[in-house]
Amino acid sequence: MSESLLNGINLDKVLDRFNIFGRYHAISAVCITLSFIYNAIKVTNYIFVAEDIRYRCADINDTRGVAKESWNVSKVDDTTTLCGVAETCTQWIYDNPDSFVAEFQLACQDWKRTLVGTVHNFGYMIGLIIIGPLSDKFGRKPLAILAGVTSGVCGLAKSFASTYWIYIVFEFLEAAFGEIHSPLFMLAIEMVSTKSRVKYTMICTLGFPIGGVLFPLIYWLISYWRTFLRVLYASGLLFILAFFFLDESPRWHLTKGHIEAAVKILNKAAKINKVEIEESLEMLTYEKDDSSNFTTAITDTFKSRALLKSCLACMVWWIVAVFANYGLSINSVSLNGDKYVNYALSAAVQVPSFVITTCLMDKFNRKVVLMWSFVACGVLCVSQPFIPNNLFWLSILMYMMGKLISCMFSEVIYFFTSELFPTYTRNSMHALCSSVGRIGGIAAPLTPLLMVYWPGLPTLLFGVASLIGGLVTIIVPETGKKPLPDTVLQAEALSNTRQNDFEERQTSSRIMD
Questions:
Q1: Based on C-alpha coordinates, what's the Rg of the chain?
Q2: For 120-261, where are the E strands, in sequence order?
Q3: Contact by Cβ (8 Å): 408, 357
Q4: pLDDT tens for residues 282-341?
Q5: CA distance from start to end of the chain
Q6: What angle do CA 50, 53, 54 make, to 5 degrees?
Q7: Which of 50, 374, 473, 508 has the most Cβ atoms closer than 10 angstroms to its Cβ?
Q8: In angstroms, how far is CA 306 from the centroid of its own chain?
Q9: H/E element holding 427?
């Protein structure tokens, strides 16, 4: 899509008149930020809801209350481990009888506990493919409201689940049809001018670290998992109020030919912010969206060798980023110290990561920042498991630094992916790569099971994956400070770095002459 000028004005020129800190955009930012706070908690609720607890078999004459992990590696009657007698145990005693594990009788079935997170991420992967195209067709606002309310309904339903498998079904449905991030993110970047896009979206996405810090605090205060889910997902029903506080994206309206609707929103924003627009908005126009469908977009991309290479690299990036980011958050509760504090710290580091990433991308090119952040995270995560136990403060510091840098490369990837593909396939390819990345999200909740073999194994895997992501970055072209490609030929030209550098030097020489 590209904007069409009419009488010397275009949409970006109009949006430049608005201060993003003005009342209109501030109200929208608050709504989107609150939505992201809700989303940050709901997409990782399983970390505490289905958390690991201690238990033992009542048939075994032992009253020590030994931790489950100790039972699994020690002998009972010198012949079998605790879980080795699981089939003959008639009653399990749980450290917390009101926990998720106790109510669904999941003793010695850790795979069922971790499966909750895996199912959620699989549902989220499906949701990206469903919600993204629907929001392109029907609008950002209605899909965000529908997904928010749907997540609330399904979440409340799973809080009343009487069996484990009923819970799993609603976990999948909530993740697949309650995906609010993509339509709200698109709404945020489309309601401001190009020069304000990064700053405004960074403000809105602060909802994720805020939600991450609030999550352990709220769960600690409520403690009972069913009550927590009811409080959390009841707030999802409030998405219906967004109908009154949020407007549709003017850009989306214009691409669909809804000129009057777009003008109405812009006039409303001007009135609230007390901005005078001298141009006649009724004459504003925009090229209608003639982008290809999802299947055609993939076909056109795979026909180009350069774009196919970029696409494969992006898929690897997304898998690594989601795997490392989610994995480091999930396993933070297993570190030495208070699990609630550790998780809150792992979420809080996203705030400086946003600021650092924005500054680095502005000063350096995308490729340099992405490659070195991958390598730095890899080195930290590979080294962290080998820190002596008596230096737990250093171990936690390195872990949190790894988490901070994983947030950095996740931010860069979001922008980098958008800049590698031509305009008419950009949204489709971004959705495809992001969806494939959920493979990492599916695997991440299972990594705590590896701690039985060695406590540092999950973190080591996150580090190795990050190093692989850094190596893959070598094969993609640089996109920083270059115009977004509108066609396949322009996107392919990004790969011809030597030719581009030569042309830039020639242009500079002509200007100097």
A1: 25
A2: none
A3: yes
A4: 555 555 555 555 566 667 677 878 888 888 888 999 999 999 988 888 877 777 777 888
A5: 36
A6: 160
A7: 374
A8: 27
A9: helix 423-443
Nearest to 235 by CA among 42, 6, 10: 42
pLDDT of residue 509: 40
* Predicted TM-score (pTM) of this structure: 0.78
Q: List the domain boundaries for the chain.
A: 55-95, 294-513
Helix (H, G, I), strand (E, B) or coil at 57: strand
**Are the C-beta atoms of 252 and 246 separated by less than 8 Å?**
no
Query: In the chain, what is the greatest distance between 2 CA atoms, to the nearest angstrom?
Result: 92
Residue 27's Cβ-count burial label (10 Å; 0-12, 13-18, 19+) is middle
Are 438 and 124 contacting, i.e. CB atoms less than 8 angstroms apart? yes
Helix (H) or strand (E) holding 133: helix 110-138
Q: Which residue, among 170, 174, 135, has the nearest Cα to 152 in the 3D structure?
A: 174
Q: Which amino acid is at 319?
A: I
Q: Quick one: how far is CA 332 from the chain centroid?
A: 17
Q: Which pair of tokens denotes residue 151?
A: 């997540």
Give the position of tokens 């494969």.
Answer: 312
CA-angle at 232, arms to 226 and 233, nearest 5°: 90
User: What is 294-513's CATH topology?
Assistant: Growth Hormone; Chain: A; (1.20.1250)
The pair of structure tokens assigned to 400 is: 């949190």
Scanning 250-391, the segments in alpha helix (DSSP H) are: 250-255, 259-273, 294-303, 305-331, 339-348, 350-363, 366-383
CA distance readout (Å), 225 to 46, 164, 195, 475: 10, 14, 44, 46
Q: How many angstroms separate the CA atoms of 466 and 28, rounded? A: 35
Distance CA 396, CA 382 (A): 13
